[in-house]
Design goal:
heterodimer, A: 107 residues, alpha+beta, seven-stranded mixed sheet, 22% helix, B: 70 residues, mainly beta, 0% helix, 36% strand, globular
């Protein structure tokens, strides 16, 4: 059971040239604790990482990136990922009606 | 009884605090200061998530709770 929960749930290529992954266990933390509103929306989070409309770099940590993808009129899914040693992992994800964090680095 | 939930994620460097029901989250609002406000459908803030919340490795996170209720 421990091995299953620590196994990758997904690993996707991002437009920034590195891959981002999350585990079963970590995704459960995101949808059970951090943002239950994203329960059932893993495909949308993956799409935000793979085909974002905009990517921003965090002001507080230059290795943290915010990937935004449209989710309706004036709404976006934001997937936050940290890159470490060339590999990225999902930190959190949420649905937002505004984009204010970080500085735009892509497109 | 009101419940405040605090979750520290040392891997993702986030601190999540809920003072409403997390299941009521409708969407989040970015503040621009690396704090994301979670709101219910009525627009009420029911929690927040602090991004890039880092504690020195040698320290464990301590939560100090005080109430002024008599």
């Amino acid at each position: 059971m421990e091995q299953e929960t620590n196994a990758y749930l997904f690993q996707v290529d991002t437009v920034l040239g590195f891959q981002v992954h999350t585990t079963h266990r970590y995704w459960q933390i995101i949808v059970d604790i951090k943002h239950p509103v994203l329960r059932g929306r893993i495909a949308d989070v993956m799409a935000a990482l793979q085909t974002p409309d905009q990517v921003r770099r965090s002001k507080g940590d230059s290795q943290v990136y915010l990937f935004y993808r449209s989710d309706g009129v004036d709404r976006w899914i934001c997937a936050v990922a940290k890159q470490l040693d060339g590999e990225g992992f999902l930190v959190t994800a949420y649905r937002t009606g505004n984009i204010k964090e970080g500085e735009q680095i892509w497109p | 009884m009101a419940v405040v939930k605090v979750h520290h994620d040392p891997q993702g460097n986030t601190l999540t605090v809920w003072f409403g029901n997390p299941e009521d989250e409708y969407e989040a609002e970015e503040t621009g200061d690396e704090v994301v406000l979670m709101k219910d459908k009525a627009g009420r803030v029911i929690g927040f998530e602090k991004l890039n919340f880092v504690t020195p490795q040698s320290d464990q996170l301590e939560i100090d709770f005080e109430s002024s209720a008599s």
